[in-house]
Design a protein that fits this description.
25 strands; about 750 residues; six-stranded mixed sheet; outer membrane lipoprotein receptor (LolB), chain A; single chain; 13-stranded antiparallel sheet
Length: about 750
């Protein structure tokens, strides 16, 4: 009496799916990267034009470019509180403002694949309630003094910021420790934050640029590296309050944090105040940060993301980058400014926009993280120009790798990068951000002070050497997001091999929100099997379940979706090993049905009888495998992978969590088992790129087997709630029940 998605499909009059997706191929680009790269040509000389400004002596001369200057920071006071919290204070009297930024070294890079999005979810929840204050109280407290308070999670850290007038410093000293140390993660606020996060995930389907940027990271880093993982709806929906509590408990320790403060403050007094404010934060060990091997990149790989009716194509070309600590970092700032980081003065902008007339903009950038990041070039153009534009970008990357920037380009880049550096520090919060970033990457304030000087030491030779060492135009990945109907002929004409995916497909196969990836820890496997053995006994025992030949179950209730709730009646017949028939009556008048037998199926609606598409057959097979009456037998099947997951507690009930994956990896389900009764209370399983949850209650003994008589399913905004009215074990079933009706 389950599978909300199947019932929803029936309600939608069982619309058949389209053809199977095209099988993927390994994409490579012929040649060494030069063969299909267009070489920019010089425009033909035009007619000579007289310059009316030539020879004038009364014009204001362009001021001479000043050499890079050291940034004069006030003295930085450093100390460490007894609990291990490192503190940096800069006295800045320009304005009567104080800015505090507290960073915890835990972010997107530390998330397990099964809980993608937990760092951002937790960060957003920190200001939604503490053990002392509700969300509204926190908002009122900071608004009353005209200040700002917020928390955000980045790739490497979770950072809380508080900014107020100096006279209200005590407000930050009260609120900042409270939200970081004492979050309550209220469930009502979780629902609102979850919807906001889901909105962000869904919005990328409408934003081809964002889609291209996400796809290129996945293509470059793959599904075994955290940089290649993509937070999806399934992962956001799978995050529980216990996950947030566990994340906070694991990483939020004072000796894993850093506090930077700048403003019109008294450092000596502030040191005492901080000791009181953060004194209750107890030191404790944190887990080691995960480490991943860099992917091997051979040749050029292309992914075409089909977004029908898209008139423009978003293009991303990416390769492995460098670490922030790389000695070639400042050289790379210069060559990348010349290539695509310098806006309208960059080569990409000139060649792709001005000379080529292909697009309005093109740029390039590289990450600056503790680990090795990504170098990526970005542009967009009309579909008809997508391949030619990609050639132009590849050509400029290849030219930079071979020849580097010119002396003139290096001088211009240094003047712009170093010259604009000092203007970044307009306020106290700019100072704290810079100091915090440097400190998190193992640099001191010297890095901030001498940044412009370091840029000024780059010359054409060092920039050329760095570009030559780092750029690998024959080892890149290319993503194009556009209308495949227009793009495929262009790619095929060039002989470029590519993977074709739909823009709605789970990126990289999805987040793995329901089950963590193998390998399985032997201890976790043994613990999981022990839990399942106990649950099997509580259910009635393996012998009784294996003796079942069929079940006939009738239930009634409601289905909610698309803004309305309807009455529903279901009869489900299951004849082992693989025959299923489900009859549904909606609103006491609409009757639909489907049946599957021996690998084929049919579906009946008011519109008539049709075959069940192959894609839905796979889905129905997964439902059979996860059936609540037989799922406890799955771990006994040959090759089944079992792992115990961390226990969870919800509304005072403790649950043991176990994941089972079939030997072929085609099926997976996570069981939530009541630790007291040993009965299944919930199942979670992937469902067409989403996660469905089935809940069970009111167990009754039927022929020696415990069967839940209250059942509910939830998938996104759709809900199914049922009460079992009648159940019969091993009933006589006519084979005609499963035969395809004539009409």
């Amino acid at each position: 009496m389950r599978s909300l998605r199947s019932v929803s499909l029936l309600v939608a009059v069982l619309v058949a799916c389209g053809p199977k997706p095209t099988p993927s191929i390994t994409p490579t680009l012929p040649g060494d990267g030069d063969t299909h790269v267009a070489k920019p040509t010089e425009p033909p000389p035009g007619p000579k034009v007289d310059d009316p400004w030539a020879g004038r002596t009364d014009l204001i001369a362009t001021p001479a470019v000043k050499p890079p200057q050291k940034l004069d920071l006030p003295e930085v006071k450093r100390f460490t509180l007894p609990n291990g919290l490192k503190v940096l204070i800069v006295k800045d009297t320009r304005l009567p403002i104080v800015s505090m930024q507290l960073a915890v070294r835990a972010g997107r890079a530390d998330e397990p694949r099964a809980r993608l999005g937990v760092s951002e979810f937790a960060a957003d929840m920190l200001v939604k309630g503490t053990t002392r204050r509700k969300a509204l109280d926190i908002a009122k407290a900071i608004d009353f003094v005209g200040g700002g308070l917020g928390v955000d999670a980045s790739f490497e850290a979770t950072i809380a910021s508080c900014k107020v007038l100096t006279k209200n410093t005590n407000v930050c000293l009260d609120l900042l420790p409270d939200v970081m140390l004492n979050p309550s993660f209220p469930t009502d606020e979780m629902a609102r934050v979850r919807e906001q996060l889901l909105g962000g995930v869904r919005s990328r389907l409408d934003d081809a640029g964002t889609m291209a940027s996400i796809q290129v990271q996945n293509l470059l880093w793959g599904n075994e590296h955290v940089r290649g993982w993509v937070t999806d709806e399934a992962s956001v929906k799978a995050i529980t309050r216990d996950d947030l509590v566990a994340w906070h408990k694991a990483w939020f320790a004072p000796d894993n944090a850093l506090l930077a403060i700048a403003g019109d403050v008294d450092p000596a007094k502030l040191e005492k105040d901080l000791g009181k404010a953060f004194g209750g934060w107890k030191k404790r060990a944190v887990p080691p940060h995960p480490a991943y091997a860099d992917p091997k990149q051979e040749g050029i790989r292309i992914r075409l993301v089909d977004k029908p009716k898209q008139t423009q194509t978003q293009i991303r070309i990416a390769q492995l980058g460098i670490r922030h600590s790389d000695p070639r970092f400042f050289d790379s700032l210069v060559w990348n400014y010349t290539l695509g980081g310098g806006a309208f003065s960059s080569r990409l902008m000139k060649v792709v926009r001005s000379a080529g007339g292909k697009t309005y903009g093109a740029s390039s950038a590289f990450d600056r993280n503790l680990d090795r990041g990504t170098f990526v070039a970005s542009t967009f153009t009309r579909n008809a120009e997508a391949v030619n534009t990609a050639k132009l970008v590849l050509g400029e990357i290849a030219k930079m790798a071979k020849d580097g920037p010119t002396e003139s380009e290096v001088s211009d880049a240094i003047a712009n990068i170093a010259g604009s550096y000092a203007v970044r520090f307009e306020g106290a919060d700019d100072v704290t951000s810079a100091l915090l970033g440097a400190e998190l990457h193992g640099f001191g304030e010297e890095y901030v002070e001498n940044y412009a000087l370091r840029v000024g030491k780059v010359d054409a030779a060092s920039a050329k050497a760095a570009a030559h060492d780092i750029l690998a135009p024959d080892k890149v990945v290319i993503v194009m997001v556009g209308d495949a109907a227009e793009l495929k002929p262009l790619l095929d004409k060039e002989g470029w091999h590519y993977d074709l995916v739909k823009f709605t497909d789970p990126i990289g196969g999805g987040s793995g929100a329901v089950a963590p990836p193998p390998p399985v820890d032997p201890k976790a496997e043994a613990a999981g099997r022990a839990i399942l053995d106990d649950a099997l006994k509580a259910k009635g025992g393996a012998d009784k379940l294996k003796a079942l030949k069929g079940i006939d179950m009738k239930a009634s209730g409601t289905i909610t979706g698309q803004g309305q709730t309807l009455d529903i009646e279901i009869e489900r017949r299951f004849a082992l090993p693989d025959q299923i028939r489900v009859d549904v009556t909606i609103a006491h008048q609409i009757q639909v049905a489907y049946a599957v037998a021996k690998g084929a199926g049919w579906q009946k609606s008011p519109q008539g009888v049709a075959d069940v598409p192959a894609e839905q057959l796979d889905q129905l097979d997964h439902q059979r495998w996860t059936d609540p009456e037989f799922v406890l037998l799955r771990h006994l099947e040959k090759g089944a992978v079992v792992r115990a997951l961390p226990d969870q507690t919800d509304k005072g009930v403790a649950y043991a969590l176990v994941n089972i994956t079939s030997a072929d990896g085609a099926h997976t389900v996570t069981l939530f088992i009541d630790k007291k009764t040993k009965l299944i209370k919930q199942l979670a399983y992937p469902d067409q790129g989403d996660v469905s949850f089935d809940m069970f209650d009111d167990y009754k003994d039927v022929g020696g087997i415990k069967i839940a008589h209250k059942r509910a399913s939830k998938n996104g905004a759709e809900e199914l709630s049922l009460t079992v009215d009648k159940i019969e074990l091993n009933p006589a079933m006519d084979a005609a029940l499963f035969a395809r009706p004539a009409k």
